[in-house]
């Protein structure tokens, strides 16, 4: 039987002399694995379809629980992500988060569309902001929404330095201090990327790095999963 799916390559693993196993995040059937035969040979017809982040319409041959790529029509290669180390690691972080949050066969149309839009945004825009926006959305879709509207202790509006408790995923004002300190710049970045009102003057590069670090700590606390690319992105020189 053959099936047709719209998919993003979120993980690859080489095997054999020239083959590659793909982990695909598909719109129609969620996460699945598919073998891409001979794609590591020079001039291979489907070489493009076995590259990280490739977004394409794949035709798969199904035999039992095994899938094999028999053809693909590229929608977007997101080629710009390969020419910038920051963009590449941000995209790899997105792919790793999708891989961690999805189990085989789990369909999430909203997460898929957000992933595609974030990858497109990373190509032409600020990859850090796109990654932060995606992480916030992915966490919310998984039931871990961050409430940036006010202090979890007293309800006061958050402003300036505040605190974040990774265990309960809540922010606290200076008076109710609980958890680790969060700079004003980090908070403003999170607000901006969540689509909330923020102070643009306080949206800094360091604030973005710290926002990613905060979200990764929260992600690990809730999923008990490491995403190597995300740790490497945070460690990149500014």
UniProtKB/TrEMBL annotation:
The keyword DNA repair applies. InterPro entries: ARFGAP/RecO (IPR037278), DNA_rep/recomb_RecO_N (IPR022572), NA-bd_OB-fold (IPR012340), RecO (IPR003717), RecO_C (IPR042242). It comes from the Bacteria. Residues 1-67 form the DNA replication/recombination mediator RecO N-terminal domain. It holds the Pfam family RecO_C. Keywords: DNA damage, DNA recombination, DNA repair. One of its GO terms (biological process) is DNA recombination. GO terms for cellular component: bacterial nucleoid. HAMAP family: RecO (MF_00201). Belongs to the RecO family. Involved in DNA repair and RecF pathway recombination. This is DNA repair protein RecO. It comes from Candidatus Borkfalkia avicola.
